[in-house]
């Protein structure tokens, strides 16, 4: 049981280290870094490499932002096999809709609770 936690921690940490290095060494913006990590997860899933990583690392591979790219590609490919080209769009939305809806809902609730101060 402890080895599962250690493996997840190490793999998730390495993904985060890559993101931090993109910030610090490559001097990329947060938007560029997020796009690179999402596309990396998507490409790895396209080549069938992300699922074995999830099997090996568990939450260490499903929690970081690379998992979002994995989910987009995985859903799109699964629905494309069933419904063709229209399945690409519906598959992406079907798999990621709960995460996107939660982000919108909790962002709205946080905006109602906390007073935002604009930059001057």
Structure description:
The protein is mainly α. It is built from six helices and no strands. The chain has helices at 2-24, 30-46, 50-57, 59-62, 66-83, 85-113. The relative contact order is 0.11.
Summarize the structure.
With 120 residues, the protein is mainly α.
Topology of helices and strands:
Blueprint: H1 2-24, H2 30-46, H3 50-57, H4 59-62, H5 66-83, H6 85-113
Helix pairs in contact: 2-5, 5-6
Which percent bin holds the helix content? over 70%
Tell me the total number of β-strands.
Answer: 0
Summing up helix and strand content along with how strands pair, one would put the structural category as mainly alpha
**SSE topology string:** HHHHHH
Largest sheet: none
Provide the low-confidence segments as ranges. none
N→C terminal distance? 50 Å
